[in-house]
Amino acid sequence: MTEDRATVGVIGVGWVGLVTAACFAELGHRVVARDILPEKVESLSRGETTIHEPGLGELLARNAERLTFTTEMDEVLDAARLLFVCVDTPPTRSGDADLSRVRSVVEDLRADGDHVLVMKSTVPAGTGHSIRRDMPGLSYVSCPEFLKEGSAVEDFMHPDRVVIGADPGDEGAGDAVARLYEPLGGEIVRTDVASAEMIKLASNAFLATKISFVNEIANVCEEVGADVGEVAHGMGLDARIGPSFLRPGIGYGGSCFPKDVSALKMLAGNSGYHFQLLGAVIEVNELQKRRVVGKLQKHLGSLAGKRVALLGLAFKPDTDDMREASSLVLAARLQGEGAEVVAYDPVAADAAQDLLDGVEFRESALEALDGVDAAVLVTEWREFAELDWAAAAERMSRPLLVDGRNFLDAKTLKATGFEYEGIGRAVEDSVPTGTAD
């Protein structure tokens, strides 16, 4: 079997694993993917997509003959040499990365010299060295993922870089992984394992820092009468800064930034270094989610007995992912102030219902706005930009909108009778800043 059409093993078919499996199949490889959840394997084997990701369903359908899903590790080991590990590494209560799923996978592998463990899961720097120490007969390559939910297929097929970390003795394994990615055209960065692991953590921590920084700037803009949209635009024109991730809002969420920032902070602390900057990044992000409550109280006074609609629940558009979503904190804070919370999300409602106790769910945005005292735009779904806001104003008890993503045109909203609050925006001159990165 040639490497350019090698059989690829994927262990863990959550969001990263399923995208990885589908995209390698699209490149012409046979893929054997394993997961420990029988119901997930059965659904995927029937051709049913288990996550919401644009373009993924089409890829799975088009490459069904190349894709095999199984619960049996031996089936993967017998078929494939390159084993891409894509299991979750959630934070523990201490903030460290939980590596129990990674360790479980490693225990099931054969240290026979015939297999290469390719780590796509985000792990602390030093994890690869630890695994190699425990299993010296296992080749190890770090190949962190840089996919964004909502554009993961596009990101995989058109990467800006592919990072491959291999230590001395595993250069051949690194070469084999590099050959898989060469057709995609992105720059291939070859380095050692620990550096590859740090590249992933440092990248996400830096992006999270930009978000928290611009949110702090937005809060100052509100105090001095500046418009953060204008400020961010002027900043972003500086090539040293760039425009990406300079869009203020109610905080970052999802499966990566909160987890990875916390993991890097704890990794530094466990190594004897106090990473003060990341402590501030985390604090700002948590406080930002709560500022919406203050904006509502400015207009409504006490929120006890008030009805507030949340428009959008997923942590970002084009996904049903509710992990660390701002809506979770916001709903709880509103309920804590005595408000009744109504919610609508076009995709994530099913996932959200088990997480949002006491919240009333509606089938459309207009239904969610019926009789409410205020609305908060939490997720910048495109349909909210196309909503008939004049009709929405008529259905609300009080047409008050807090635009938590600076997504809508404030002038248009005001013209339809809305009281409008953005994040760091000068209302009279504000224009939409678009969707988040």
The largest pleated sheet is described as: 6 strands, parallel
CATH class of the largest domain: Alpha Beta
Q: What is the average of the pLDDT values?
A: 94
Could you please say which CATH topology of the largest domain applies here?
Answer: Rossmann fold
Distance between the termini: 40 Å
When the domains are counted, the total is: 2
Low-confidence stretches: none
* Helix count from the secondary structure assignment: 18
Please name the defining characteristics of this protein.
437 residues, alpha/beta, Rossmann fold, 6-stranded parallel sheet, 18 helices
Question: How would you summarize the topology of this molecule?
Answer:
Blueprint: E1 8-11, H1 15-26, E2 31-34, H2 38-45, H3 56-62, E3 67-70, H4 73-79, E4 82-85, H5 100-108, E5 116-119, H6 127-134, E6 139-142, H7 152-157, E7 161-165, H8 171-181, E8 187-191, H9 193-224, H10 228-236, H11 257-270, H12 276-300, E9 307-311, H13 326-336, E10 340-344, H14 349-353, E11 360-361, H15 365-369, E12 374-377, H16 382-385, H17 389-395, E13 400-403, H18 410-415, E14 419-421
Parallel strand pairs: 1-2, 1-4, 2-3, 4-5, 5-6, 7-8, 9-10, 9-12, 10-11, 12-13, 13-14
Question: Explain this structure to me?
Answer:
The chain is α/β, with parallel strands linked by helices. It has two domains: 6-191, NAD(P)-binding Rossmann-like Domain (Rossmann fold); 203-429, Rossmann fold (3-Layer(aba) Sandwich). It has 18 helices and 14 strands. It has a six-stranded parallel beta sheet, sandwiched between helices. Helix 9 (193-224) runs parallel beside helix 12. The radius of gyration is 23 Å and the shape is globular. The mean pLDDT is 94.
